[in-house]
């Protein structure tokens, strides 16, 4: 696969504004997609042919929802969070998480996600949270709603302390 600089992105004006607002550089989006495409480690949705890439270069995790159209990658959304996450909390009986509605599967394992109790950590605080996880390779899916909602609020609250 070509290096990420040679990849072509299609980003609509709306998504570009969203990226600007969320301070997500275009280069980071390229790197996230490149990493997902070269390793196969991403989430995918068969019904819509969309992919969800994740990329954590340092202390921020970036997520990019995209689809491939010919040689171009169309970016549908991008978001980020600083909170770290760790799986291994075991299965939970709370299956109300929107995982089953979302339709994402682990692309590498071709596995349906299951809901597990995951530890989200930021600064010195740990928040147990029920999240969709691949039962084989343990990758955790953070949905846009969570990253830009509850997680962002908690990060902000801790920084303000
Ligand atoms: Zn997996």
Can you describe what's shown?
This protein has 161 residues and is an alpha+beta fold. It has four helices and ten strands, in the order E-H-H-E-E-E-E-E-H-E-E-E-E-H. It folds into two domains: 4-81, YaeB-like fold; 84-160, Roll (Ubiquitin-like (UB roll)). It has helices at 13-21, 26-39, 99-102, 144-160, and strands at 8-11, 43-45, 50-55, 61-69, 72-81, 84-86, 105-106, 111-112, 114-122, 125-133. The strands form two sheets. It has a seven-stranded mixed β-sheet with strand order 1-5-4-3-2-7-8. A three-stranded antiparallel β-sheet has the order 6-9-10, with no helix packed on it. A hairpin with a 4-residue loop joins strand 7 and strand 8. The mean pLDDT is 90.
Which structural class fits the helix and strand makeup? alpha+beta
Domains, number: 2
- Give the bound compounds: zinc ion
| Proper CATH architecture of the largest domain | 2-Layer Sandwich
Order of helices and strands: EHHEEEEEHEEEEH
Give the % helix. 25-40%
Query: How many DSSP helices?
Result: 4
Number of distinct beta strands: 10
Could you name the CATH topology of the largest domain?
A: YaeB-like fold
Distance between the termini: 45 Å
What would you report as the Rg, rounded to the nearest angstrom? Answer: 16 Å
**CATH uppermost class of the largest domain:** Alpha Beta
Shape descriptor: globular
- How would a crystallographer describe the biggest sheet? 7 strands, mixed
- Unreliable residue stretches: none
Average the pLDDT over all residues and give the rounded result.
Answer: 90
Taking strands numbered 1, 2, ... along the chain, how are they ordered across the largest sheet?
A: 1-5-4-3-2-7-8
Q: What is the strand content?
A: 35-45%
């Amino acid at each position: 696969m070509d290096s990420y600089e040679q990849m072509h992105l299609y980003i609509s004006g709306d998504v570009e504004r969203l990226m600007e607002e969320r301070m997500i550089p275009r280069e980071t989006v390229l790197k996230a997609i490149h990493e997902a495409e070269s390793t196969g480690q991403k989430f995918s949705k068969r019904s819509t042919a969309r992919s969800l890439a994740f990329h954590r270069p340092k202390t921020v995790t970036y997520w990019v929802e995209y689809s491939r159209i010919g040689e171009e990658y169309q970016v549908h959304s991008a978001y980020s969070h600083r909170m770290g996450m760790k799986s291994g909390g075991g299965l939970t009986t709370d299956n109300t998480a929107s995982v089953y509605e979302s339709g994402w599967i682990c692309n590498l394992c071709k596995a349906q996600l299951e809901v597990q109790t995951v530890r989200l950590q930021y600064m010195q605080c740990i928040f147990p949270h029920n999240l969709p996880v691949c039962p084989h390779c343990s990758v955790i899916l953070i949905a846009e709603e969570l990253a830009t909602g509850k997680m962002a609020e908690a990060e902000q609250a801790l920084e303000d302390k």
